[in-house]
Amino acid sequence: MTKAIRIAANGGPEVLEYVDVEVGEPGPGEIRVRHKACGLNYIDVYFRTGLYPQPLPAGLGMEGAGIVEAVGQGVSHLKTGDRVAYASRPPGAYAEARVMNAAYVVKLPEGIDFETGAAMMLQGLTVQYLFRRTFPLRGGETILFHAAAGGVGLIASQWARAIGVTMIGTVGSDEKAELAKAHGCAHVINYNTENFVERVKEITGGKGVPVVYDSIGKDTFIGSLDCLAPLGMMVSFGNASGPVPPFSVNELASRGSLFITRPSLFNYIAKREDLDVMANDLFSMVLSHKIKIGINQRYALKDVAQAHRDLESRKTTGSTILIP
């Protein structure tokens, strides 16, 4: 039997159960992977609470790294013994081992260890598509990125610095501000002591920014729109404070014909060729030391409920992993 986390109902961290499960053989197009580390991400909270519905009972976790134990028919890019990593639906990474679709699994380069692999895939690929595809940055831009001291934010801070982009980041404490600055964030705003809209306007000489990357949602949405220059783009890629409430599209017109998008990583990696390009770009940034994946919290898999409590109370910074 294999240990895994399961939920039988939606709710708080108390619904997370550490149980025995049977992991069978992979079918066509599948592999069985033995995890060395699993990633923790805010999207896991959305699935646990039911904000993102899924059939119950169910597993949680979208990200992991480990070794391929078995390969199903038709899988040609992986073999038994390969070191691998992934960020993929359906949830189920909170486990010692799992069977999953091989199409979303990539080989992990030898220069990247399992813990880094588990901590970097979802967050790193998110920054990759945000900066390379959703609103492609070419260097020289000034951007606003919320939650700059989180796992995605710290990767974004480093990536922005590496490509010559001036990043304005928001955080919730002075300690987090120092962390974001240390990772390359050019301007940091503590939204608990400063008005981030006023500060963005001050930093940009009243012009605003061409793009806002916002994973906070309800609490920052309208303010984010107010930070945009005319014809700017609002990229709403998460809702840590709650879903964005309904709004009139006239809010976009009145601020200068703004654009808005609600992207998801899983649409961007739906094609295998896109996943390969994105993963190789991320691996290159890490192997070249332009980006360092900061694993600031480690929990045993059985202690995942505490990990969720700490994540939701914003006690965590950088990346967090679970050790099976």
Describe the structure using short key phrases.
324 residues; alpha/beta; Quinone Oxidoreductase, Chain A, domain 1; Rossmann fold; 2 domains; seven-stranded mixed beta sheet; six-stranded parallel beta sheet; 10 helices; 16 strands
Describe the structure in your own words:
The protein has 324 residues and is α/β, with parallel strands linked by helices. It folds into 2 domains: 2-121 and 266-323, Quinone Oxidoreductase, Chain A, domain 1; 139-262, NAD(P)-binding Rossmann-like Domain (Rossmann fold, 3-Layer(aba) Sandwich). The chain is 30% helix and 27% strand. The chain is built from 10 helices and 16 strands. Strands 3, 5, 6, 7, 8, 15 and 16 form a 7-stranded mixed beta sheet that branches. Strand 10, helix 4 and strand 11 form a beta-alpha-beta unit. The two termini are 14 Å apart. The mean pLDDT is 95. It comes from Noviherbaspirillum humi. This is NADPH2:quinone reductase. Residues 11-322 form the Enoyl reductase (ER) domain. Keywords: NADP, Oxidoreductase.
Q: In short, what is this structure?
A:
Helix content is 30%, strand content 27%. It is of the alpha/beta class and 324 residues long.
